[in-house]
């Protein structure tokens, strides 16, 4: 973690503020790729993840945008109500679980609401590199759509289409049949992403062409744990019982075994841990279906076990 200063705070849309972050000495920040996010440390030990939405070619600043959630757990309300220009924030270096596919010959970006944030960064990078792309942005109304001035200006305006409440948003027409080298990136509310991805699969798009970013764990992944199991540490042979009401991370942390964690919901990938034996009960939104089926990695912050014991490469 390192400290940055809030150098600008702007109201981008109803319920959405953007925050520009720079080093106090205005030195370069760690580089990032389009689609990356950062951890933001807030008072009371809160750690939240926010997508970087400025151009990756800007090394002097990071820009994040935060939607004020009605049922905020403290992150968005703190940033909206208590963080102002001139204040210091502690953040982590950028991490990317939603990267542009370098082999892609065409890129379709579909954003719903606050889901514009990582896709805006992608659009900047694709435009700068002269790539073939389209950005389709769906929001309830213009007042709920962030960064409209940026999207309406060069170089993004030629690639961007906007859709509001009474405008038909025909996903099937936008996607069309799958084409070799074409990749789809989607971010927004879970219902929006599910609709887009289900439509794509119905048209024959392969999972390898579909890429999504989640802001929160799905309800199914947050279901109560359904039993206890054992975890064995390969390097020491020590075995720990994981009760039904505790996570693997909690038990191992208590035993002095450190695993890096961030979101504690299986959406950031910070705690991905190699599995040597056993079959995990995957409850994350980080690993692809193919990666989950391979059972070589799992997220100890939220995932469980389908077998009596997991042997971890720790």
Molecular structure report:
- GO terms for molecular function: 2 iron, 2 sulfur cluster binding; metal ion binding; oxidoreductase activity.
- Residues 229-314 form the 2Fe-2S ferredoxin-type domain.
- Keywords: 2Fe-2S, Flavoprotein, Iron, Iron-sulfur, Metal-binding, Oxidoreductase.
- InterPro entries: 2Fe-2S_ferredoxin-like_sf, 2Fe-2S_ferredoxin-type, Beta-grasp_dom_sf, DmmA-like_N, FAD-bd_FR_type, FNR_nucleotide-bd, MRET, Riboflavin_synthase-like_b-brl.
- The chain has 314 residues and is of the alpha/beta class.
- The chain folds into 3 domains: 2-91, Translation factors (Elongation Factor Tu (Ef-tu), domain 3, Beta Barrel), CATH 2.40.30.10; 106-213, Rossmann fold; 220-312, Ubiquitin-like (UB roll) (Roll), CATH 3.10.20.
- Helix content is 18%, strand content 29%.
- The protein has 7 helices and 18 strands.
- It has helices at 75-82, 116-128, 148-151, 171-175, 190-202, 248-254, 289-294, and strands at residues 2-13, 16-22, 37-41, 47-51, 62-67, 88-91, 106-112, 133-138, 160-163, 182-187, 210-213, 229-233, 239-242, 273-277, 280-281, 297-298, 304-305, 309-312.
- The strands form 4 sheets. It has a 6-stranded antiparallel beta sheet with strand order 4-3-6-1-2-5, covered by helices on one side. The protein has a 5-stranded parallel beta sheet with strand order 9-8-7-10-11, with helices on both faces.
């Amino acid at each position: 973690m390192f400290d940055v200063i809030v150098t600008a705070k702007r109201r981008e849309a109803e319920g959405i503020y953007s925050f520009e972050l720079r080093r106090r000495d205005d030195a370069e920040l760690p580089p990032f790729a389009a689609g990356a996010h950062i951890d933001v440390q807030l008072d009371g030990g809160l750690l939240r993840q926010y997508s970087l939405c400025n151009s990756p070619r800007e090394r002097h600043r990071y820009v994040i945008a935060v939607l004020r959630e009605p049922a905020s757990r403290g992150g968005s309300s703190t940033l909206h109500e208590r963080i102002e220009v001139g204040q210091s924030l502690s953040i982590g270096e950028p991490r990317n679980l939603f990267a542009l596919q370098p082999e892609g010959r065409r890129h379709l970006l579909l954003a719903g609401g606050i889901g514009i944030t990582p896709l805006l960064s992608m659009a900047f990078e694709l435009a700068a590199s002269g790539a073939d792309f389209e950005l389709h942005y769906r929001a309830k109304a213009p007042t709920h759509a962030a960064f409209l001035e940026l999207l309406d200006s060069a170089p993004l305006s030629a690639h961007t289409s906007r859709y509001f409440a009474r405008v038909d948003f025909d996903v099937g027409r936008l996607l069309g049949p799958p084409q070799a080298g074409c990749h789809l990136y989607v971010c927004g509310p879970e219902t929006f992403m599910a609709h887009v991805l289900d439509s794509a699969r119905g048209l024959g798009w392969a999972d390898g062409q579909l890429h999504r970013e989640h802001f929160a764990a799905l309800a199914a992944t947050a279901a109560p744990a359904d039993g206890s199991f054992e975890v064995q540490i390969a390097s020491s042979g020590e075995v720990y019982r994981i009760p039904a009401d505790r996570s693997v991370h909690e038990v191992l942390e208590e035993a002095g075994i450190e695993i890096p964690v961030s979101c504690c919901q299986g959406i950031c990938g910070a705690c991905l841990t190699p599995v040597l034996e056993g079959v995990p009960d995957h409850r994350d939104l980080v690993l692809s279906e193919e990666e989950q089926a391979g059972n070589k990695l799992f997220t100890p912050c939220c995932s469980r076990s389908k077998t009596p014991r997991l042997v971890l490469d720790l």
